[in-house]
């Protein structure tokens, strides 16, 4: 649980409430794009600075914004908020031959997340980002990780993640330390969504990496 003696930061709580209101009735916030300083900042650990009511509204708004984008993850920095908080969600698709090892990844709120590699195996696939809109590039990531995070009630969780869920968790956790996927991507593979679908989904990319379509995080 978050510390019992933790006090709500009234000024931060007010700022977050104002941010939520910008989403209107649709609860859809604008997503910060690459170049905004907030995407390059180390976020502040969350330990109960927001009221429970405000936190619940923030999570709901982030979830709606993520799904509308559409994406499978959204970090607080991507809506301009420097808190160590993200939402993730993805579901199995119809393609049984998808090499990315997509698995059911139900909606999670991941607060103060961290991860460590659980093996030396890596996988390279196309990956996108809602804050680098319109492009994707091949990124090598750990295939298996030991993930840790707090939920919205302050309970600590530990779980071994594999394949695509592990990639999503790494992507969003990296956001909270100021890293974008493009920082360590195979730059020669950078492509627009349209060209990815037209040229690279079924053909080798000009790198040592694999060639499958990714999703924005």
Automatic annotation (TrEMBL):
Cofactor binding summary note: Binds 1 Fe(2+) ion.
Binding site for Fe cation: 129, 171, 175
Cofactor(s) required for function per UniProt: Fe(2+)
Catalytic activity from the UniProt record: N-terminal N-formyl-L-methionyl-[peptide] + H2O = N-terminal L-methionyl-[peptide] + formate
GO molecular function: metal ion binding; peptide deformylase activity
EC number of this enzyme: 3.5.1.88
The UniProt record lists the keyword Hydrolase: yes
Active site residues according to the UniProt entry: 172
Gene Ontology biological process terms in this record: translation
Enzyme class (EC, first level): hydrolase
InterPro entries per the UniProt record, alphabetical: Peptide_deformylase, Peptide_deformylase_sf
Keywords, in A-Z order: Hydrolase, Iron, Metal-binding, Protein biosynthesis
Keyword Metal-binding: yes
Similarity section: Belongs to the polypeptide deformylase family.
Function: Removes the formyl group from the N-terminal Met of newly synthesized proteins. Requires at least a dipeptide for an efficient rate of reaction. N-terminal L-methionine is a prerequisite for activity but the enzyme has broad specificity at other positions.
NCBIfam families assigned to the protein according to its UniProt record, in alphabetical order: PRK00150.1-3
Annotated protein name in UniProt: Peptide deformylase
Lineage of the species this protein comes from: Bacteria, Bacillati, Actinomycetota, Actinomycetes, Bifidobacteriales
Gene name as annotated: def
């Amino acid at each position: 649980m978050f510390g019992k003696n933790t006090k709500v930061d009234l000024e931060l709580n007010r700022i977050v409430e104002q941010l939520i209101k910008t989403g209107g009735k649709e609860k859809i916030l604008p997503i910060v794009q690459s170049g905004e300083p907030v995407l390059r900042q180390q976020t502040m650990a969350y330990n109960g600075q927001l009221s429970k009511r405000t936190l619940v509204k923030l999570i709901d708004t982030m979830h709606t914004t993520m799904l509308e984008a559409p994406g499978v993850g959204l970090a607080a920095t991507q809506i301009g908020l420097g808190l160590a908080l993200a939402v993730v969600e993805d579901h199995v698709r119809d393609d049984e031959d998808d090499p990315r090892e997509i698995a059911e990844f139900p909606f999670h709120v991941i607060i103060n997340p961290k991860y460590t590699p659980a093996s030396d195996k890596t996988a390279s696939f196309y990956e996108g980002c809602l804050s680098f809109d319109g492009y994707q590039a091949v990124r090598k990531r750990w295939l298996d990780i030991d993930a840790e995070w707090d939920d919205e009630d302050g309970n600590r969780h530990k779980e071994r993640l594999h394949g695509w869920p592990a990639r999503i968790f790494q992507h969003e956790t990296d956001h909270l330390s100021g890293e974008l996927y493009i920082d360590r991507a195979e730059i020669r593979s950078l492509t627009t969504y349209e060209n990815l679908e037209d040229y690279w989904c079924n053909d080798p990319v000009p790198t040592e990496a694999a060639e499958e379509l990714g999703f924005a995080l």
